[in-house]
Amino acid sequence: MNGWLLAAAVTLGGGLTATLWGVATGPLGRRVVAQNLATAVACPGLLLLSQAYGRPAYVDVALALAVLGPVGTLVFARLLADELAEHPPRGWWPTWATAALGAVVVPALCAVTAPGRATVKLLVVGALLVGGNVVATRALTGGIQGVRGG
Length: 150
Fold this sequence. Notes:
The protein is mainly alpha-helical. It has one domain. Helix content is 81%, strand content 0%. It is built from six helices and no strands. It has helices spanning 3-24, 28-53, 57-79, 81-86, 92-112, 117-140. Helix 2 (28-53) runs parallel beside helix 5. The protein is elongated and about 50 Å long.
């Protein structure tokens, strides 16, 4: 077992445990935030697994997940707007925690990756991961005009 595989196991194990707890318990707001957290944790986990196993195809899966995960959260925010208005979720700590995770994982992988297309792809995944989750969390907490009266 190398360090990359250990980091992926810790990231996925801790993040997905928190996600399962959030989805299984609590009000609707917590469950939607946990769904957003799942994609935000799975992306860095896939990036770490890509480095651990030497499989660049995992970066492509992380890229697709970084694009589609926040979009799914925005769809939930739009469809469940009335229910979320009654008990607005508070999801800033998972957003900042996953942003910090992405801010640690992506530069570390960029440092060990040869300059070129792979590094650019990693940077794009990192930007989509952080930006998408900030936008999705703002939509869930009512901070975007037209989504929940924000």
